[in-house]
Amino acid sequence: MRIADKICAVLAAESARRLWQQLELALKRTRTVEIRLDWLANDAEISKFLKLLARKRLRADLIATCRRRPGGGKYAGSIANQLRFLSEAIRAGYSWYDLEIETSRECPRELLSVMLSGGKHLASAHDFKRLPANLKRVASELSAQKPDAIKIAVQCDSLAAARKLLRLAHGRRDVVAVPMGEVSLPARVLALREGSALAYAAIENATAPGQVSFDQMKRLYRADRLTRKTRVYGVIGDPISHSLSPLMQNTGFQARKMDAVFLPFLVRDLRDFLSSIGPLGIAGFAITLPHKQSILRHLDDCDPLAEAIGAVNTVVVRGGGKLYGYNTDYVGVLRALENRMALRGSRVLILGAGGAARAVAFALAQAGASICVCARRIAKAKELARAVGGIAIERAEVKREFFDAIVNATPVGMHALAGQSPLEAGELNCRLVFDTIYRPRQTKLLQLAARRGIETVSGVEMFMAQGTAQFEIWTGERAPEKAMRTAARGALEREEKSTTKRK
């Protein structure tokens, strides 16, 4: 598939004016653009846009798409009007047109050949529900139309399904493979490396599940530069879309000019991810909720400290695919707190008893703090307290106690739970509150503490410290801390400003 740039910018808007503005933005970044005519509000807006384009005659590879609803698009008009608009698009300067299999099945090939002559044909099939049972049959039906290239885009709810789809493109130059869905987002980024002729990314509005922005695809992941020699890293968890690890680690790789990429893996099935380590060439990965403890049974070896903690947040893939685990949360906790308070002899309440809480408890206990644990399940709290020589306390007791510090190691206050707090204001009887959550920086818990004049510590400090430690474990090089910190803080500040404007 001879085309200018391999990352195709996708444009979608309801008005011709806004679509044209998107086109102007896109052409500053790439010379390959898909324009979704079917997203325009009506036929009049489609005609208006095509007239604008005909007057300009842009020098770019433009792909016209006017996908009808039966094919997963938005166009509600007739096939006759769909073909008319695609024909006008070709005359207006589009070099390619994307025609879905549902329309092709209803039209004689001779008619399509006459109406759409002059444009290169991208024959496409979309399944927004699941991977078809017989992909090769779908590919054969598309190829039977004698197009210039074929595209298959399907919902992939596992990495195994996404890898199966990408295999269709191996060794070919005329196949576009598009895994859809958040689970397969890493495969979408790696698609060009796996042989797909194109990768799609949105300029403004995502038009398919899991479609990332153009700037992410091009600048953050550098999808068009990835090769089989590129070292692949990632973070696994559920949820994962909130994670700033990809931004921070990719910034680090670029600052050190490394041929490496860091991807977010939404992992609901741990075995599905583990079976993809070899095929995707994964060299290491970070771990967040809920896999920090369950990963232990899949490791070949483990750092003694991580084994004692009973939770791992960092894995290195060694020769033969052997998995070796570490825990850098431990380092993050100490760096976040050691300059804020005297740890030895202090009394600290830890909220939670999961993987993050275990790292906090072990770090502070070894630094000489006396540990109290409060968790939803008292049995889990007692188990962790015993492991660090501390005590477990019931929630009802918290408001009657005083602590030097309270540490939140639960997900309450994070992302989907933003606006919630694991404790009420009246329960914050302490000198310092530390929330391991870093997004948002000022959680509800920290806001409550600040109103009472209590010193607060954001999870950003822990996040940065554990992340730079991970970088150094994976690469063997000193982490570019300043660049990584600047990128992460900048993203959080922009997010906060955006949130404030919306309010």
Helix/strand layout:
Elements: E1 7-11, H1 16-26, E2 32-36, H2 43-56, E3 61-65, H3 79-92, E4 96-100, H4 101-106, H5 109-115, E5 120-127, H6 135-143, E6 149-155, H7 159-167, E7 175-180, H8 185-189, E8 199-202, H9 214-220, E9 231-237, H10 245-255, E10 260-266, H11 270-274, H12 277-280, E11 282-287, E12 301-302, H13 304-309, E13 314-317, E14 323-326, H14 329-337, E15 347-351, H15 355-366, E16 370-374, H16 378-387, E17 391-392, H17 395-398, E18 403-408, E19 430-435, H18 444-451, E20 455-457, H19 459-475, H20 481-502
Parallel strand pairs: 1-2, 1-8, 2-3, 3-4, 4-5, 5-6, 6-7, 9-10, 9-11, 12-14, 15-16, 15-18, 16-17, 18-19, 19-20
Antiparallel strand pairs: 11-13, 13-14
Protein described:
It is a single chain. With 503 residues, the chain is an alpha/beta fold. Among the domains are: 220 residues, TIM Barrel (Alpha-Beta Barrel); 128 residues, NAD(P)-binding Rossmann-like Domain (Rossmann fold). The protein contains 20 helices and 20 strands. Strands 7-6-5-4-3-2-1-8 form an eight-stranded parallel beta sheet. A six-stranded mixed beta sheet has the order 10-9-11-13-14-12. The protein is elongated. The two termini are 47 Å apart. The model has no long low-confidence stretch (mean pLDDT 96).
